[in-house]
Amino acid sequence: MSRPRVLITRRDVPQKALDIINDKCEVDIWHESFPIPRDELLKKISGKDAILCCVTEKIDKDVLDAAGPNLKVIGTMSVGHDHLNLEEIKRRGIKVGYTPGILTDATAELTVALLLATSRRMFEAHTEILNGGWKKSVWSPLWMNGWGLLGSTVGIFGLGRIGQGVLRRLQGFGVKRFIYSGHFPRKEGEEMGAEYVSFDNLLAESDFIIVTCALNDETREIFDDKAFAKMKNSAIIVNTSRGGVIHQDALIKALKTKQIRAAGLDVMVPEPLPTDHELITLPNCTLIPHIGSAEATTREAMATLTATNIVAGLEGHPMPAALC
Which residues form the D-isomer specific 2-hydroxyacid dehydrogenase NAD-binding domain (predicted)? Predict the structure, then answer.
Protein backbone atom coordinates (compact mmCIF):
# COMPACT_ATOMS: atom_id res chain seq x y z
CA MET A 1 0.00 0.00 0.00
CA SER A 2 1.14 3.55 -0.71
CA ARG A 3 2.06 5.70 2.26
CA PRO A 4 -0.19 8.64 3.19
CA ARG A 5 0.90 11.99 1.80
CA VAL A 6 1.42 14.89 4.23
CA LEU A 7 1.98 18.55 3.43
CA ILE A 8 4.16 20.43 5.93
CA THR A 9 3.85 24.19 5.52
CA ARG A 10 7.08 25.18 7.29
CA ARG A 11 10.67 24.15 6.59
CA ASP A 12 11.89 24.82 10.13
CA VAL A 13 9.76 22.26 11.97
CA PRO A 14 11.95 20.57 14.64
CA GLN A 15 13.60 17.43 13.30
CA LYS A 16 12.12 15.18 15.97
CA ALA A 17 8.64 15.92 14.60
CA LEU A 18 9.76 15.43 10.99
CA ASP A 19 11.19 12.03 11.90
CA ILE A 20 7.84 10.92 13.33
CA ILE A 21 6.01 11.81 10.13
CA ASN A 22 8.73 10.64 7.73
CA ASP A 23 8.70 7.24 9.37
CA LYS A 24 5.10 6.62 8.32
CA CYS A 25 4.31 9.07 5.52
CA GLU A 26 5.41 10.61 2.25
CA VAL A 27 6.23 14.23 3.05
CA ASP A 28 5.99 17.38 0.94
CA ILE A 29 7.60 20.39 2.69
CA TRP A 30 7.41 24.06 1.79
CA HIS A 31 11.14 24.80 1.84
CA GLU A 32 11.19 28.61 1.82
CA SER A 33 11.91 30.72 4.90
CA PHE A 34 8.60 32.60 4.67
CA PRO A 35 5.04 31.29 5.13
CA ILE A 36 3.65 29.35 2.21
CA PRO A 37 1.79 31.71 -0.16
CA ARG A 38 -1.91 31.14 -0.61
CA ASP A 39 -1.60 30.03 -4.25
CA GLU A 40 1.12 27.52 -3.36
CA LEU A 41 -0.96 26.16 -0.48
CA LEU A 42 -3.93 25.65 -2.80
CA LYS A 43 -1.70 23.87 -5.29
CA LYS A 44 0.35 21.73 -2.94
CA ILE A 45 -2.52 20.49 -0.77
CA SER A 46 -4.22 18.79 -3.71
CA GLY A 47 -4.49 15.07 -3.07
CA LYS A 48 -2.82 15.18 0.35
CA ASP A 49 -4.05 12.97 3.18
CA ALA A 50 -2.94 15.35 5.93
CA ILE A 51 -1.46 18.78 6.56
CA LEU A 52 0.77 20.15 9.30
CA CYS A 53 0.04 23.87 9.50
CA CYS A 54 0.59 26.89 11.72
CA VAL A 55 -1.52 29.95 12.53
CA THR A 56 -0.22 31.59 9.34
CA GLU A 57 -2.25 29.22 7.15
CA LYS A 58 -5.95 29.89 6.83
CA ILE A 59 -7.64 26.53 6.31
CA ASP A 60 -11.02 27.45 4.85
CA LYS A 61 -13.48 26.07 2.31
CA ASP A 62 -11.26 26.99 -0.64
CA VAL A 63 -8.31 25.10 0.81
CA LEU A 64 -10.47 22.11 1.69
CA ASP A 65 -11.94 22.07 -1.81
CA ALA A 66 -8.45 22.23 -3.30
CA ALA A 67 -7.34 19.34 -1.09
CA GLY A 68 -10.11 17.08 -2.27
CA PRO A 69 -11.62 14.02 -0.58
CA ASN A 70 -8.26 12.50 0.42
CA LEU A 71 -7.71 15.03 3.22
CA LYS A 72 -8.52 13.28 6.47
CA VAL A 73 -6.29 14.94 9.09
CA ILE A 74 -5.21 18.47 10.00
CA GLY A 75 -2.52 19.03 12.61
CA THR A 76 -2.11 22.64 13.69
CA MET A 77 0.99 23.55 15.66
CA SER A 78 -0.97 25.87 17.91
CA VAL A 79 -3.54 25.98 20.66
CA GLY A 80 -5.48 28.79 18.98
CA HIS A 81 -7.63 27.69 16.07
CA ASP A 82 -9.26 30.82 14.65
CA HIS A 83 -7.35 30.15 11.40
CA LEU A 84 -9.37 26.96 10.91
CA ASN A 85 -12.93 26.89 9.57
CA LEU A 86 -14.02 24.25 12.06
CA GLU A 87 -17.63 24.20 10.90
CA GLU A 88 -16.61 23.26 7.36
CA ILE A 89 -13.89 20.89 8.60
CA LYS A 90 -16.33 19.03 10.84
CA ARG A 91 -18.89 18.83 8.03
CA ARG A 92 -16.35 16.96 5.94
CA GLY A 93 -15.43 14.59 8.76
CA ILE A 94 -11.80 15.72 8.93
CA LYS A 95 -9.92 15.13 12.18
CA VAL A 96 -8.05 18.05 13.77
CA GLY A 97 -5.25 17.87 16.31
CA TYR A 98 -3.84 20.85 18.22
CA THR A 99 -1.38 21.58 21.06
CA PRO A 100 -3.17 22.63 24.28
CA GLY A 101 -1.29 22.96 27.54
CA ILE A 102 2.22 22.71 26.12
CA LEU A 103 2.71 26.41 25.48
CA THR A 104 1.08 27.64 28.70
CA ASP A 105 4.25 28.27 30.69
CA ALA A 106 6.21 29.83 27.83
CA THR A 107 3.36 32.18 26.93
CA ALA A 108 2.69 33.11 30.56
CA GLU A 109 6.37 33.95 31.04
CA LEU A 110 6.40 36.04 27.88
CA THR A 111 3.25 37.86 28.99
CA VAL A 112 4.86 38.88 32.25
CA ALA A 113 8.00 39.97 30.37
CA LEU A 114 5.92 42.09 28.00
CA LEU A 115 3.99 43.61 30.91
CA LEU A 116 7.23 44.63 32.61
CA ALA A 117 8.80 45.88 29.38
CA THR A 118 5.74 48.05 28.74
CA SER A 119 5.21 49.36 32.25
CA ARG A 120 8.91 50.11 32.81
CA ARG A 121 9.33 51.52 29.27
CA MET A 122 12.25 49.25 28.41
CA PHE A 123 12.02 49.62 24.62
CA GLU A 124 11.79 53.40 24.93
CA ALA A 125 14.80 53.38 27.25
CA HIS A 126 16.84 51.26 24.85
CA THR A 127 16.10 53.73 22.07
CA GLU A 128 17.42 56.52 24.29
CA ILE A 129 20.79 54.75 24.47
CA LEU A 130 20.95 54.66 20.67
CA ASN A 131 19.82 58.23 19.97
CA GLY A 132 21.90 59.98 22.61
CA GLY A 133 19.00 60.72 24.93
CA TRP A 134 20.72 58.98 27.85
CA LYS A 135 23.67 61.36 27.70
CA LYS A 136 21.37 64.38 27.67
CA SER A 137 19.13 63.21 30.52
CA VAL A 138 21.37 61.07 32.71
CA TRP A 139 19.93 60.76 36.24
CA SER A 140 17.17 63.28 35.60
CA PRO A 141 14.66 62.45 38.37
CA LEU A 142 11.67 62.12 36.06
CA TRP A 143 13.38 60.71 32.97
CA MET A 144 12.13 57.28 31.78
CA ASN A 145 9.95 56.85 34.84
CA GLY A 146 7.73 53.82 34.52
CA TRP A 147 4.92 52.39 36.63
CA GLY A 148 5.27 49.48 39.03
CA LEU A 149 3.00 46.60 39.99
CA LEU A 150 3.32 47.14 43.74
CA GLY A 151 -0.07 47.97 45.25
CA SER A 152 -1.84 47.81 41.89
CA THR A 153 -4.99 46.12 40.62
CA VAL A 154 -4.30 43.65 37.84
CA GLY A 155 -7.23 42.54 35.68
CA ILE A 156 -7.06 39.41 33.56
CA PHE A 157 -9.49 38.95 30.70
CA GLY A 158 -9.74 35.19 30.16
CA LEU A 159 -8.60 33.12 33.13
CA GLY A 160 -7.80 29.95 31.22
CA ARG A 161 -4.50 28.08 31.40
CA ILE A 162 -2.39 31.02 30.28
CA GLY A 163 -4.28 33.57 32.37
CA GLN A 164 -3.81 31.39 35.44
CA GLY A 165 -0.12 31.02 34.62
CA VAL A 166 0.26 34.79 34.42
CA LEU A 167 -1.57 35.27 37.73
CA ARG A 168 0.68 32.76 39.51
CA ARG A 169 3.80 34.48 38.21
CA LEU A 170 2.61 37.92 39.28
CA GLN A 171 1.81 36.92 42.85
CA GLY A 172 5.33 37.79 43.95
CA PHE A 173 5.20 41.38 42.67
CA GLY A 174 3.20 42.91 45.49
CA VAL A 175 -0.02 43.26 43.50
CA LYS A 176 -2.76 44.44 45.85
CA ARG A 177 -5.72 42.94 44.01
CA PHE A 178 -6.29 40.47 41.18
CA ILE A 179 -9.59 40.56 39.30
CA TYR A 180 -10.70 38.66 36.22
CA SER A 181 -13.58 38.48 33.77
CA GLY A 182 -14.90 35.78 31.47
CA HIS A 183 -17.91 33.57 30.94
CA PHE A 184 -18.16 32.45 34.56
CA PRO A 185 -16.31 32.40 37.90
CA ARG A 186 -13.56 29.79 38.07
CA LYS A 187 -12.58 27.67 41.04
CA GLU A 188 -8.93 28.28 40.16
CA GLY A 189 -9.47 32.03 40.41
CA GLU A 190 -10.89 31.71 43.91
CA GLU A 191 -8.02 29.42 44.93
CA MET A 192 -5.48 31.99 43.75
CA GLY A 193 -7.22 34.88 45.47
CA ALA A 194 -8.65 36.51 42.35
CA GLU A 195 -12.08 38.13 42.29
CA TYR A 196 -14.54 37.53 39.44
CA VAL A 197 -16.02 40.79 38.10
CA SER A 198 -18.03 41.97 35.11
CA PHE A 199 -16.20 43.12 31.98
CA ASP A 200 -17.18 46.73 32.68
CA ASN A 201 -15.78 46.52 36.21
CA LEU A 202 -12.59 44.96 34.90
CA LEU A 203 -12.16 47.93 32.58
CA ALA A 204 -12.94 50.53 35.23
CA GLU A 205 -10.93 49.11 38.13
CA SER A 206 -7.75 47.71 36.59
CA ASP A 207 -4.40 49.47 36.57
CA PHE A 208 -3.09 46.75 34.26
CA ILE A 209 -5.28 44.68 31.94
CA ILE A 210 -3.87 41.42 30.58
CA VAL A 211 -5.69 39.82 27.68
CA THR A 212 -5.36 36.03 27.50
CA CYS A 213 -8.74 35.01 26.09
CA ALA A 214 -9.60 33.04 22.96
CA LEU A 215 -10.69 34.88 19.82
CA ASN A 216 -14.29 34.12 18.91
CA ASP A 217 -17.46 35.95 17.91
CA GLU A 218 -17.96 37.18 21.48
CA THR A 219 -14.45 38.51 22.01
CA ARG A 220 -13.68 39.86 18.53
CA GLU A 221 -12.81 43.57 18.88
CA ILE A 222 -14.34 43.62 22.37
CA PHE A 223 -11.72 46.22 23.29
CA ASP A 224 -13.19 49.04 21.22
CA ASP A 225 -13.73 52.79 21.66
CA LYS A 226 -16.37 52.20 24.35
CA ALA A 227 -14.13 49.83 26.26
CA PHE A 228 -11.12 52.15 26.21
CA ALA A 229 -13.33 55.04 27.36
CA LYS A 230 -14.19 53.03 30.50
CA MET A 231 -10.54 52.38 31.39
CA LYS A 232 -8.40 54.52 33.65
CA ASN A 233 -6.25 57.11 31.88
CA SER A 234 -3.34 55.52 33.73
CA ALA A 235 -4.19 51.96 32.58
CA ILE A 236 -1.83 49.73 30.63
CA ILE A 237 -3.16 46.91 28.44
CA VAL A 238 -1.13 43.85 27.38
CA ASN A 239 -2.38 41.39 24.76
CA THR A 240 -0.82 37.98 24.11
CA SER A 241 -3.97 36.22 22.86
CA ARG A 242 -5.00 37.26 19.34
CA GLY A 243 -4.81 40.65 17.67
CA GLY A 244 -8.46 40.54 16.68
CA VAL A 245 -9.59 40.87 20.31
CA ILE A 246 -8.61 44.56 20.14
CA HIS A 247 -10.10 47.05 17.68
CA GLN A 248 -6.75 48.34 16.50
CA ASP A 249 -7.88 51.77 15.27
CA ALA A 250 -9.58 52.34 18.62
CA LEU A 251 -6.37 51.36 20.41
CA ILE A 252 -4.30 53.77 18.30
CA LYS A 253 -6.75 56.55 19.12
CA ALA A 254 -6.66 55.71 22.84
CA LEU A 255 -2.87 55.75 22.89
CA LYS A 256 -2.52 58.98 20.91
CA THR A 257 -5.09 60.86 23.00
CA LYS A 258 -3.75 59.44 26.29
CA GLN A 259 -7.11 57.81 26.96
CA ILE A 260 -4.92 55.00 28.30
CA ARG A 261 -1.28 55.13 29.31
CA ALA A 262 0.34 52.39 27.23
CA ALA A 263 -0.08 49.05 25.46
CA GLY A 264 2.10 45.98 25.02
CA LEU A 265 1.23 43.70 22.10
CA ASP A 266 2.57 40.32 21.06
CA VAL A 267 -0.31 39.96 18.62
CA MET A 268 -1.83 42.42 16.17
CA VAL A 269 -3.66 42.77 12.84
CA PRO A 270 -2.30 42.02 10.34
CA GLU A 271 0.62 39.75 11.09
CA PRO A 272 3.33 40.44 10.24
CA LEU A 273 2.67 44.12 10.90
CA PRO A 274 3.84 46.37 8.02
CA THR A 275 6.97 48.32 8.91
CA ASP A 276 5.20 51.61 8.19
CA HIS A 277 2.19 50.85 10.41
CA GLU A 278 1.11 53.64 12.75
CA LEU A 279 1.38 51.43 15.84
CA ILE A 280 5.14 51.28 15.32
CA THR A 281 5.40 55.07 15.58
CA LEU A 282 3.78 55.30 19.01
CA PRO A 283 6.29 55.53 21.88
CA ASN A 284 3.72 54.23 24.38
CA CYS A 285 3.14 51.00 22.42
CA THR A 286 5.54 48.09 22.96
CA LEU A 287 5.47 45.59 20.10
CA ILE A 288 6.95 42.12 19.76
CA PRO A 289 6.32 39.72 16.83
CA HIS A 290 3.95 37.00 18.15
CA ILE A 291 6.61 35.07 20.08
CA GLY A 292 4.50 33.95 23.04
CA SER A 293 5.40 30.27 22.64
CA ALA A 294 8.84 30.87 21.09
CA GLU A 295 10.86 28.89 23.61
CA ALA A 296 13.03 26.04 22.32
CA THR A 297 11.71 23.11 24.36
CA THR A 298 8.14 24.37 24.01
CA ARG A 299 8.28 24.60 20.22
CA GLU A 300 9.83 21.14 19.96
CA ALA A 301 7.10 19.70 22.19
CA MET A 302 4.41 21.46 20.13
CA ALA A 303 5.83 20.09 16.89
CA THR A 304 6.18 16.58 18.28
CA LEU A 305 2.60 16.54 19.54
CA THR A 306 1.37 17.85 16.19
CA ALA A 307 3.24 15.10 14.34
CA THR A 308 1.92 12.46 16.74
CA ASN A 309 -1.63 13.78 16.27
CA ILE A 310 -1.28 13.50 12.49
CA VAL A 311 0.09 9.96 12.48
CA ALA A 312 -2.51 8.77 14.99
CA GLY A 313 -5.31 10.33 12.95
CA LEU A 314 -4.08 8.77 9.71
CA GLU A 315 -3.82 5.34 11.35
CA GLY A 316 -7.33 5.58 12.80
CA HIS A 317 -6.16 5.87 16.41
CA PRO A 318 -7.30 8.50 18.94
CA MET A 319 -5.21 11.66 18.74
CA PRO A 320 -3.35 12.62 21.94
CA ALA A 321 -4.88 16.12 21.59
CA ALA A 322 -7.93 16.19 19.34
CA LEU A 323 -9.84 19.40 18.64
CA CYS A 324 -12.45 17.54 16.61
Answer: 112-292
Task: Give the pLDDT score at 324.
Answer: 93
Q: How far is 157 from 318, CA to CA, in rounded Å?
A: 33
The Cα 27–Cα 311 span in angstroms is 12
Closest among 80, 81, 214, 105 to 160, alpha carbons compared: 214
Which one is catalytic: 31, 277, 290, 317? 290
Mention every residue, 6+ apart, whose C-beta is less than 8 A from residue 142. none
- 183 tagged catalytic: no
Total count of residues recorded for the chain: 324
Q: What are phi and psi of 155, to 5 degrees?
A: -105, 135
Q: How far apart are CA 47 and CA 70, in angstroms?
A: 6
Contact 261, 238 (CB under 8 A): no
CA 157 to mean position of chain CA atoms: 14
